[in-house]
Design brief:
alpha+beta, Structural Genomics Hypothetical 15.5 Kd Protein In mrcA-pckA Intergenic Region, Chain A
Length: 124
C-alpha cells in the first residue's frame, strides 16, 4: 500500500520489528482483514494505519486513501516536524560539504572558550 517503496524493503522492516499490530511484531506473510490497525516505525516517529479495504494488486498513489486511513497520533507528527527543524542548518541546500574554513569556524563557535576570544571592551 505504498508505505514502503518495494516489497523487499517492507519485508526487511517486518523482520527488523518495525511493523507491529497490538504490540506484536508482524511477519512478512501476515494477512490483514478490513478494520485491522497496525503501526509502522519509520525514523523518529511511529505511523498508525487502519485497513479500509483489501486489494490484490499494487495501487496508484491517488487510490491509497480508499484502502488505508492514516490514524497517526498528532504528537508523533510533531516529532517529525521537530526532526525536520533540527535537520536544517545555516547552510543552503545543495551547497555541498563545509569547507575547511567553515569547519574551523563551526568548531571555534562550538568550543567552550568562544566568548573568551571576543573583546567586549572595544564595543563601548
Amino acid at each position: 500500500m505504498r508505505i514502503y517503496k518495494t516489497r523487499s524493503i517492507a519485508a526487511d522492516a517486518c523482520k527488523n520489528g518495525r511493523i507491529t499490530m497490538g504490540g506484536v511484531q508482524l511477519k512478512p506473510s501476515r494477512t490483514f482483514k478490513v478494520g485491522d490497525t497496525f503501526s509502522v516505525r519509520k525514523g523518529p516517529i511511529t505511523y498508525t494505519y487502519r485497513v479500509l479495504q483489501l486489494t490484490e494488486n499494487r495501487l496508484g498513489a491517488k487510490l491509497v486513501p480508499e484502502y488505508l486511513r492514516d490514524c497517526t497520533d498528532p504528537a508523533q507528527l510533531e516529532l517529525l516536524e521537530l526532526a525536520r527543524m533540527a535537520g536544517q542548518s545555516g547552510r543552503d541546500r545543495g551547497t555541498g560539504r563545509p569547507t575547511k574554513k567553515d569547519r574551523r569556524e563551526i568548531m571555534t563557535f562550538m568550543s567552550d572558550n568562544y566568548l573568551d576570544k571576543i573583546d567586549f571592551e572595544d564595543e563601548e
